[in-house]
Amino acid sequence: MSPFSQLNSEQRWALAFYTGSLAFGEAQRDSGQAAWSRDQAAGLVDDLASLVDMTPADAAARQGQAGLEVLAYLRAHPEALAEGRPAPLHVAREHLNASLGHYHAGNSKAAYGAALSAYLEGFEMAESGLRAVAPELVEQIEHQMLAYRKAVRQEGVVSEVERRHGELSRLLGEAARVLDDTSLTPAAGFVGAFAILLREGLEAILILAAVGAVLVRTGRRDALPWLHAGWIAALAMGAATWALSSYLIEISGAGRELTEGFTALLAAAVLLYVGFWLHGKTHSDRWQQFIRERIQHALHGRGLWLLALIAFLAVYREVFETVLFYQALWLQAGPQTSGALWGGIGAAAAGLAVLTWIIVRSSLHLPLHWFFGVNAAIMLVLAVAFAGHGIAGLQEAGWLPADPVQFPRLSLLGIYPTVETLSAQLVLVALVAGVLMFERRRRPAE
Length: 446
Prior knowledge:
Structural class: mainly alpha
Distance between the termini: 78 Å
Number of helices: 17
Helix content: over 70%
Number of domains: 3
Order of helices and strands: HHHHHHHHHHHHHHHHH
Shape: globular
Strand content: under 5%
């Protein structure tokens, strides 16, 4: 037998669960399996993290002999936690029905919370797989969920809430039929995996390529390692997120959206600062002196850390969301489709690499005035997009209200059809326009 130090993390966890199962007999495990299948120990263990922390004394104190037997079974078969989870759309319908029940009982707060869970813990888990085969249906369901939550939050008349509930239930039923009738073919898996990585990686690539080109163009190649350190750290954090969410803990829906939302808003603030800074350099009348005296000496200490922060924020938000999308897509894929998924990921990665090369090479050949202007525009446009992503994330987590409007949804630009996201972006656009006009008036004629 290999020594413990030579075991990988998966083997160590398997050994830990096996050792823990030795505290129980075969009869207890069999009884625990029966109790688990009948859902007699509901609420005892929700995920792998709670299973790891659960002691026999805790299980007995909470649910007596049945708790001990279920613990015995789960220590021997921890995979049952994943296998026993209901389908995401079933979870969504259960929460939605619970929401209507709370509303009939006069508890609008509980009704709103259940409606939020219908999206976060249910529909969102099936969204990426459904989007690969029925994107228009995804848009309809998301719009109706926002409308239903708005009706509940505003304590509308019961008939209106019931109407929204009925329409949403119909759409969820249609989505379930689509997923049941439409297996994820290799072609659909390839396209889905390709589109996810290309869509999520595009914003990060634009930021990294633009900042990297600025460093190269201004003779600060020595600062490139800080930029690389930021995106490499983000990839490592993304890998850790995938490992934790797959094998140890289950990241809640609200936790996912809050992480994405706050990261996007922080990134928007940083990009806004960098965009204004770059724009301010497009009108320097003595470029060589500016480069020698300002940029050559500006990137020290906090400036270098800012580079790493820009790269980290730009990449981690996209990696975090990509991990969650791929987890959902993988659950829908069979053995015959997994190769196509990897092919889609590889093709998208190659496409992003080519796009990076094109952006950097074309930027380096632009006149200096245009070079800084174009990169400033990229930063400011992405700041507006990230602001939209951030507001939308906080709305989906239930931290901000969401009032849907009839407006095109362009998620690549962070445009979501709600009053709050569009208003925030309009304010940001007005701020950018105001600052640029102020600089133009203040700058003496050249």
